[in-house]
Amino acid sequence: MSKLDPNLKLNQIHIPGTHDSGTFAINLVAIKRFVETQNLYITEQLENGIRYLDITVSFEDIGDEIYISHNFIPCFTRKNHKLYLRYVLNDCMKFLMDHPYETIVTHISRENVDRDTITDYNFDC
Question: What is d(CA 19, CA 33) in angstroms, rounded to the nearest whole number?
Fold first, then answer.
């Protein structure tokens, strides 16, 4: 994205993105094919040119964590751990540090998370 005309507005740029970007690992076999919309992990999506991430989150009462979900179904990491929002944000931050002239646009929508929880959430990655 560093080669783009700096006078372009965001709505004038074609940004490659993925829908339900975090749904690359669903552990419920019976519904996996209905909710798993990606086959690459976030870092792999970024390395392959994706710059718009569509993330849906839910709130975990135990441990006060926000995790990536699809219709309230949790998404997982390669190591079979629940995919927490902080993991995704850390991956994005690392990618941007490794590629300082790139940009990532992230749309975060919430399922069972109220606005105050998202606002107060500790985004210190």
Answer: 15
Domain ranges of the chain: 18-114
pLDDT mean over 64-92:
89
**And the tokens for 96?**
């941007």
Instruction: List, in order, residues 6 or more apart from 32 with CB less than 8 Å away.
Output: 26
Q: Helix, strand, or coil here: 66?
A: strand
Strands (E), 72-125: 73-74, 105-110
pTM, to two decimals = 0.83
Please write the tens of the pLDDT for every residue from 87-113.
999 999 999 999 999 999 999 888 766
